[in-house]
Amino acid sequence: MSNDKIALIVGASGIVGSNLATELLATNWTVYGLARRPPQHLPGLRPVAANLLEPTSLETALADVHPTHVFITTWMRQDTEAENIRVNSALVRNILTALSPKGTVQHVALVTGLKHYLGPFEAYAKGGTLPPTPFREELPRLDIENFYYAQEDEVYAAAERDGFTWSIHRPHTIIGKAVGNLMNMGTTLAVYASICKETGQPFQWPGSEAQWNGLSDVTDARIIAKQLAWAATTEAAHNEAFNIVNGDYFRWSWLWPRLAAWFGVEATGFDGTVHSLEAQMADDTDRWREMAARYQLVEPELNNLASPWHTDLDLGRPLEVMTDMSKSRKLGFLVYQPTEESFFDLFAQLRTDRIIP
User: Fold this and answer.
1) 157 by DSSP, 3-state: which?
2) Which residues does the UniProt record annotate as the domain PRISE-like Rossmann-fold (predicted)?
3) Which of 250, 256, 267, 292 could form a disulfide with 300 if both were Cys (CB 3.0 to 4.6 A apart)?
């Protein structure tokens, strides 16, 4: 190999994994990208096709891969939290078990998220006593089953067995380009705004009053990529969990009209009622196909671009949510990204790539 930093990105086709691959390739890593359908368009990325839930498939696919650093950036959504725990702990366990005999892994990074503090989908930001904001990494786990906790425990157990260091990364809503991603607010809002412009309807705020008026933050996919690379190669960051957001706070009441203006549509704010985005977009599948044909867009299937169910979860929360970045800042991670520019950069990229008109 040309260098001693060999990355295996698990989930290389996703919003975090693809941006991480770009970051590492730009800084002279050898990068393998594992997914069922790994990306083929990134120059230098070495694709590895495998099913994370089939150990034999993994062992075969990884036979000639000897990574020094493993970045786990994927999960599989299930119908219940019990199934989320079973499936998503297995995918972490399977990948680390497959790599264990090689003895080359020095560090494993796991990407989870703020459901660590807010609870899983079945009990998301509901009931019990939620921790105060801004969320800090030292907060104890909630007294509820959570697949993020199960994934962490698999990493800890493998680290104890194999002697590697680890880092846990907890982003808020991730803003960045990825097609087919399960949780993609930026592209969802871009598609929604494009439909609003096409039909002449207003860009209606879909969420709660608390989210409209409260403070919030988000995570640019490029920022989490930089933190993942930093933690993997910074000794002081080993065996630690880190929040990761852009570094600024905003109110949606400030940002929403700015997003609307980028598309040239009328913004409508909170009017006393939650207007579910999933309900608003329920009948837009055929309309998007028509728009894709009219404007020669590359993706005619709405469900491959928009995840309104997840945007509803984020924007419908009954409390304001933001995180504290002091821990990684004190250790030297000082990267900052204005959130408004995160959205605008994404929108421009989607337009350039003919994903939106």
Assistant:
1) helix
2) 68-302
3) 292
**Helix axes 185-199 and 285-295, enclosed angle (nearest 10):** 80
Cα–Cα distance for residue pair 95/67, rounded to 1 Å: 12
Q: What angle do CA 86, 82, 123 make, to 5 degrees?
A: 135
The closest alpha carbon to 19, from 169, 235, 119, 146, belongs to 169
Express each pLDDT in 325-353 by its tens digit.
999 999 999 999 999 999 999 999 999 99
* 226 given a catalytic annotation: no
Which residues, 6 or more positions from 198, have their beta carbon under 8 angstroms from its beta carbon?
287, 291, 357
User: Each residue of 163-187: pLDDT tens digit?
Assistant: 999 999 999 999 998 765 656 899 9
Residues 160-165: contacts with CB within 8 Å, 24+ apart? Answer: 161/100, 162/96, 162/100, 162/103, 162/105, 164/105, 164/106, 164/107, 164/108, 165/106, 165/107, 165/108, 165/238, 165/239
Peptide bond into 134 cis (omega under 30): yes
CA angle 50–55–59, rounded 5-degree value: 70
Region of residue 200 (phi > 0: left; psi between -120 and 50: alpha; otherwise: beta): left
Annotated catalytic residue within 5, 148, 177, 226: 148
Identity (one letter) of the amino acid at 105?
Answer: V
Of 150, 51, 139, the residue nearest 95 (C-alpha): 51
Report the C-alpha gap between 95 and 251 in whole angstroms. Answer: 40
Angle at 8 between CA 2 and CA 14, to 5 degrees: 130
Residue 43, amino acid: P
If you search the block for the tokens 């990529």, which residue do you land on? 225
The answer to whether the CB of 238 falls within 8 A of the CB of 328 is no
* 115 catalytic residue (yes or no): yes
Confidence class for position 318, pLDDT limits 50, 70, 90: confident
Has residue 128 got a pLDDT over 70? no
Query: What does the alpha-carbon distance between residue 116 and residue 135 come to, in Å, rounded to a whole number?
Result: 10
E strand or H helix at 226:
helix 221-232
